[in-house]
Amino acid sequence: MTSVNRHFISPTEPLSGLFITQTPTLLIKELGESVKVGCEHNDSTYYYIYWYRQRSLGAMDLIATSVGKGSVQIVLPFNESKYSMTRPDVKRSVLQIEKLESEDSAVYFCSSSTSYSNAEFGKGTKLTVLEPNTTISRPTVNLLPPSSGELYNDMKKVTLVCLADRFYPDHITFAWQKNGINIKDGVATDHSALQDPQTKFYTISSRLSVDKTDWEDPKNNFTCTVSFYDGTKYHSHPYTLKKPKAGVRASILTTVRFGYFLLLSKSLVYALFVAMLVWKCKPTKEMSVLRET
Fold first, then answer.
1. Which one of 1.10.630.10, 2.60.40.10, 2.40.50.1070, 1.10.260.40 gives the CATH number of domain 6-129?
2. What are the TM regions of this chain, as residue ranges (predicted)?
3. pLDDT of 240-252, one tens digit each?
C-alpha cells in the first residue's frame, strides 16, 4: 500500500470521447453494512482506474488504483480489511466498503486515464450512512413568490424561492419549469443542505430569477419539482405558484400604496403634535422676567 494522495479537483464533463458510468448514483445504508459501487467506461485504451472519496465538497482522497486487469492497490491510510477493489476487465471496476460507519458518508468518484492523458471522472456515487436514532423523512416544501419589495419597486427581475425543509437524509434535487418546460437559466441552488444538529433534519433552497414581465404575465406558470430519494425509490412532487389575478394584484398594489400614505400621514400628524407641545412648554421672555423679579 502507498500513502494517501489528496487532490482539490472538481469532476467535469469528459474532454475526450471517454464516458464513465457509475452505478448506482445514490445509496443509503445502515451502520455496519457493506456496499458496492460499480464503474464502467467505453475505451479499452484507458487502462488506469482510480477510486476517490470526497466529503462535503472538500479534497478528494485517493482510495485505490489499478493499472490493468487484476492489478489493484489500496492507498494508505485506507486499509484492505475495509476497502477492496476488483477489476474484472479493463473497462470495469468495483469498489467495496465493509462495516460502514458514519464517517463513510461521502461521494465516491471513479476516474480513468491513459499514460499520456488527463484523468476523466464519473459523476459520482453519493453514499449516506444513516446516523443512529434517525428516520428517513420526506421534505416539507414551500414555494415562495417574489417579495413585495421586488414587485412594487423599479426592478427588472424577481425571485421565486423553493424551500425544502425537515428531510433526512440529504438526497434531494430541484427542477424548475415554466409552463411545463424545464428551465435552467436563472436557477441557483444551495451548494449543500444545512443540518440541524439536534433534529438531524436538513434544509435547502433553490431560487429562480425571472423577468418581472414574465412573472406578471397571467399566461405564465412557474413550477418547482422536488425529488427525494428514500433508499428504494424517488418521490417527485411538482409545486406551482398560484398567482393572483390582475385585478387582485392591482388591489394589492393600491392597498400597499394606501398603507404607505396612511403611515406617512400619521408620522406628519405626530410630528406636528410634538412641535405644538414643545412650543407650548417653551418659556416666553415675559415669563422669564417675572420669575427673576
1. 2.60.40.10
2. 258-279
3. 987 766 544 545 4
CA distance 231 to 95: 19
Does domain 140-240 sit in CATH 3.40.50.360? no
All cell numbers assigned to 111 = 476516474
CA distances from 168 to 17, 137, 205, 210 (A): 37, 5, 15, 30
Reported as type and span, the H/E element at residue 42 is none
Q: Are 200 and 168 in contact (CB under 8 A)?
A: yes
Contact 76, 86 (CB under 8 A): no
pLDDT, tens only, 120-149: 999 999 999 999 999 999 999 999 999 988
Nearest-angstrom CA–CA distance, 134 and 126:
18
The grid coordinates of residue 225 equal 419539482
Q: What is the DSSP string of 215-271?
A: HH-TT--EEEEEEEE-SS-EEEEEEE--PPPHHHHHHHHHHHHHHHHHHHHHHHHHH
All cell numbers assigned to 29? 445504508
